[in-house]
């Protein structure tokens, strides 16, 4: 699975970092989402799914490949 | 009881989050969503920002396109208003005369903008809640036009910023001492300066006495101090009231929102989420209602989870989020973390100048929340401190 990010939509809420700190980070200056791991491990996937669900702008996704 | 029929009343962000969470948690029964607007669910925050500015197409706002609707097995019925709820018989009454029997219902009907009495018939007096509202207002934002915005809350401030940037002559009227008066002096002063720098005529401490009209058009606004403002268009940004009229006679308590317990439950089989819900926040120790986009999604997920848990013997989870909201004005981002309601103190914790600012808010000896203007990193550092004892010294930034 691959994480997709539409950074133009990001509102810097930091919800994704709360849900999956190993996979998401925030830019120091803008607060916008920074992807730390494009292909999450099986152990990281539940957190990524939570992050995708709670993102207030829907800028995160999970693609099959 | 077994859960085979779920009805979601309200086709917005909270409703679609609930639908997705139900399917994600394995619910495989019937799922119906009704909404009074003629559109499938869409995202509202961009309406006062990119959509009003014309920099983002409306089609881009969808939260659930046709493919996703099919994937979710969602019977989506836009343009279908609910007019009643029979809690005992577990039925939703529709405006078209139909009824929807349910095992579980989620109330996600959101809010309606406040109006000024006697202005509804005036074609150029606007509110801003729906995509249709946004498109009507956008058409009025032509360079040189005169716009009076009544109310400098989030919506009024954002719309004023978009309009001023588009070359519209904007007067922003706010009864409080600053824009976003709930955030207090330092942030308010910064915002006031920002609006004035961009040419907005900001009238704080100003109340509207009357909207002057000729025929079906407003021609101006008279303030309580006698000032007469001419206007080609007026935007009422006076806040909102929960859309609970359809629940009259249901037996639910709807004063100030649909009253729910800590699990977002209003009655057996009835859950509420998003702007319309007023729930018992265990960590805060009081009932709260939050009109923010982030809450709509998070509470939609929580309510769906607890509805499913109640039906299947699973473990319900109390819903006690740390609130988060954001506002974009003139390219500045204002971030609000925590619930600042009733704060009893504040302290500027970072003031590097150039319009950047971080203020922490205290309530009853604890950190109520933090507001940051273009300082996301400092905001992040404060996140773990929300609800903790108020620090005697400011943490290093």
UniProtKB/TrEMBL annotation, chain A:
4Fe-4S ferredoxin-type domain residues: 1-29
Annotated keywords: 3Fe-4S, Electron transport, Iron, Iron-sulfur, Metal-binding, Transport
Names of required cofactors: [3Fe-4S] cluster
Gene Ontology molecular function, alphabetical: 3 iron, 4 sulfur cluster binding; electron transfer activity; iron ion binding
Gene3D superfamilies: 3.30.70.20
Pfam families: Fer4_13 (PF13370)
PROSITE patterns tied to this protein: 4FE4S_FER_2
Biological role: Ferredoxins are iron-sulfur proteins that transfer electrons in a wide variety of metabolic reactions.
Annotated protein name in UniProt: Ferredoxin
From TrEMBL, chain B:
Cofactor: FAD
UniProt keyword annotations, A-Z: FAD, Flavoprotein, Oxidoreductase
Reductase C-terminal domain ranges (all copies): 324-388
Domain of life (superkingdom): Bacteria
GO CC annotations on file: cytoplasm
Keyword presence, tRNA processing: no
Entries under InterPro entries matching the protein: FAD-oxidoreductase/Apoptosis, FAD/NAD-bd_sf, FAD/NAD-binding_dom, FAD/NAD-linked_Rdtase_dimer_sf, Reductase_C
An example Gene Ontology molecular-function term: oxidoreductase activity, acting on NAD(P)H
Ranges for domain FAD/NAD(P)-binding: 5-300
Protein name (record): Pyridine nucleotide-disulfide oxidoreductase
Organism name: Actinocatenispora rupis
Name of the encoding gene: hcaD_1
């Amino acid at each position: 699975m691959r994480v997709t990010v539409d950074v133009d939509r990001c509102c810097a809420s930091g919800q994704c970092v709360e849900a999956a700190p190993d996979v998401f980070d925030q830019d120091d200056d803008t607060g916008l989402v920074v992807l730390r791991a494009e292909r999450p491990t099986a152990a990281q996937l539940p957190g990524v799914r939570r992050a995708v669900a709670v993102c207030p702008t829907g800028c995160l996704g999970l693609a099959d490949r | 009881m077994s859960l085979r029929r779920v009805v979601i009343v309200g086709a917005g962000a909270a409703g679609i989050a609930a639908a997705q969470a139900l399917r994600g948690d394995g619910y495989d029964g019937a799922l119906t969503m009704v909404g009074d607007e003629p559109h499938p669910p869409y995202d509202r925050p961009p309406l006062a920002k990119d959509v009003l500015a014309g920099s983002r197409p409306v089609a881009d706002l969808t939260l659930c396109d046709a493919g996703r609707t099919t994937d979710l097995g969602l019977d989506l019925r836009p343009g279908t208003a609910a007019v009643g709820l029979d809690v005992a018989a577990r039925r939703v009454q529709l405006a078209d005369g139909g009824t929807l029997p349910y095992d579980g219902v989620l109330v996600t009907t959101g809010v309606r903008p406040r109006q000024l009495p006697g202005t509804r018939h005036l074609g150029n007096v606007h509110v801003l809640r729906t995509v249709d509202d946004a498109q009507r207002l956008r058409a009025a934002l032509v360079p040189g036009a005169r716009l009076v915005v009544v109310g400098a809350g989030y919506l009024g401030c954002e719309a004023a910023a978009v309009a001023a940037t588009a070359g519209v002559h904007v007067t922003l009227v706010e009864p409080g001492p600053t824009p976003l008066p709930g955030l207090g002096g330092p942030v308010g002063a910064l915002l006031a300066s920002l609006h004035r720098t961009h040419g907005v005529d900001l009238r704080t401490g100003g109340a509207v006495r009357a909207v002057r009209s000729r025929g079906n058009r407003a021609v101006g606004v008279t303030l309580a101090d006698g000032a007469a403002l001419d206007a080609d268009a007026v935007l009422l940004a006076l806040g909102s009231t929960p859309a609970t009229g359809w629940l009259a006679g249901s037996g639910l308590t709807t004063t100030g929102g649909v009253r729910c317990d800590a699990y977002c439950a209003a009655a057996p089989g009835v859950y509420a989420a998003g702007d319309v819900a007023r729930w018992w926040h265990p960590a805060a120790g009081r009932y709260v209602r939050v009109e923010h986009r982030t809450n709509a999604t998070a509470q939609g997920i929580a309510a769906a989870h607890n509805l499913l848990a109640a039906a299947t013997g699973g473990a319900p989870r109390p819903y006690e989020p740390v609130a988060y909201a954001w506002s974009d004005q003139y390219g500045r981002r204002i971030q609000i973390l925590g619930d600042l309601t009733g704060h009893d103190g504040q302290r500027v914790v970072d003031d590097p100048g150039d319009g950047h600012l971080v203020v922490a808010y205290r309530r009853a000896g604890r950190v109520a929340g933090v507001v940051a203007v273009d300082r996301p990193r400092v905001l992040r550092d404060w996140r773990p401190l929300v609800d903790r004892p108020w620090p005697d010294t400011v943490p290093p930034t």
